[in-house]
Amino acid sequence: MPIPGNPLAYTLVYALESPRGPVLIDAGWQHEDAWAALTGGLATFGIDVADVHGVVVTHFHPDHAGLAGRVREASGAWIAMHRADADIVRLFNSVDRAQRTGIEHDSMRRAGASAAELEGFAGGGGRVDPPAIPDRELGDGDLVDLPGRKLRAIHTPGHSPGHICLHLEDADRIFTGDHVLPRITPHIGLYPYDIPGVDPLGEFLGSLARIGEMTVEEVLPAHQYRFADLPARVREIVEHHEERLGEVTALLSATPTALWDVAAGLTWRHPWTEMPLEARRMATGEAAAHLRTLENRGLVRRADVDGVLGFTLAG
Hints:
By secondary structure, the protein is of the alpha/beta class. Helices cover 37% and strands 14% of the residues.
């Protein structure tokens, strides 16, 4: 399913057969090109989108949940996601775009973005319509309504609070959404940057450890390609984040460093000065997530200066 203008390029959407009609795992970005790919792909197997029984969404992000509402309109299908992400979808549907952009702008100011950056920021998440509110909510271990099959939800928070992987037990396959991808790692960010009591990277590493104990025949992710040896890939992702935590720590000292400056000092695919402001905002969310984990490990302390989020080494 194409994602126009996004370097990920596409989302993999899976259709699982059942006597009541197929159940989709994710639905793709809300765009006419994606809709054509979905309906055309189903038609290749003699399936009309009107026959879809349900859509189970691995997480609320628009490249996964965007078309779920349109599928429901065309077929009467149910939409299911984890209750934590369902809460976020309801929140997004209750807040208008201007409010969402204002929240992002305030977070950037608190992180230490410059006046010029703040003036040039037009908003990121506010440009995307929120996904459809689901009809059903899933918890860890719940079976999805897939007649004749056993598709079990596994709560794997981190990339989103309610991200789920889906274990097709009768075929020994696991659909990992964005939780485990074959060559890249998902974005793990903290939003707002100073929200208390939340540790998305810690949750991500914890749920990776749980998934990493599984030995399944095949892993079917939401991007790139299918692969085998889930435990080996999990180990690689954990090692990547531990290295990243070390890189964050190396930028800190006994003198407070602003969150925005920590993000600017990290290694990214493109130089910080060449990154669009929305990319910098998301990079700062990733830096904030790593700092929160370091705080919880007792290695870093928060030390705000003049209302700007700052951090020092502990001790």
